[in-house]
Design a protein that fits this description.
single chain, mainly alpha, 9 helices, elongated
Length: 185
């Protein structure tokens, strides 16, 4: 019985990812989840009490996977500069991933305070990954630099998501240049 519930919950989360990546937060409804999974609408409420609960669990499940992917890319780098480049590039490479599209859709939505706090904490963990490399590079305020660097990454993500005129590789190169050399490029 527990295995069945676990499988149903996973199916609901997978359906939620698809709905979010296809249609944004407006598409994430309990009737749509029920239709995608073949469950009765009332059954969806047995797993999640609200849309915010679905969103919160998606963040708890997906953000660590995404962060581990970024961390693994950084671990393969052998210098602080290469770690910064890996941090930026890997996040931008993940833009097309369904999990990432869902997280972007989630972050744009109106969530309750608990869900917003979990997202902030997850983002804080992502930013914390790069602090050491920035300190190695000589930044006097590596934590501040890390937060600003994430702002550059977030702006590049939005540019890619919006289908900017530039190719994603051009945007990634510009973001890496900004991260390593500032506006001097």
């Amino acid at each position: 019985m527990a295995e069945h519930r676990s499988m149903q919950r996973a199916a609901l989360l997978d359906a939620a990812r698809s709905l979010l990546s296809e249609g944004g937060t407006e598409a994430l409804t309990f009737p749509a989840l029920a239709e995608r999974t073949g469950l009765a609408r009332s059954s969806v409420y047995e797993y999640f009490r609200s849309r915010a609960a679905v969103v919160q669990e998606l963040c708890e499940v997906d953000f660590p996977v995404w962060a581990a992917d970024v961390s693994a890319a950084m671990e393969r780098a052998d210098t602080a500069e290469a770690k910064v480049e890996a941090y930026v590039r890997r996040q931008l490479e993940l833009v097309g991933d369904r999990r990432h599209r869902a997280v972007v859709a989630i972050s744009a939505s109106e969530l309750d305070a608990g869900a917003r706090e979990k997202i902030r904490a997850a983002h804080g963990g992502l930013v914390a990954m790069i602090v050491e490399a920035l300190a190695e590079m000589g930044h006097e305020e590596p934590r501040l630099a890390a937060m600003l660097l994430q702002g550059v990454v977030d702006a590049a993500v939005r540019r890619i998501e919006l289908g900017a005129a530039e190719e994603p590789g051009v945007i990634a190169d510009a973001a890496v240049g900004m991260a390593l050399r500032g506006v001097l490029g």
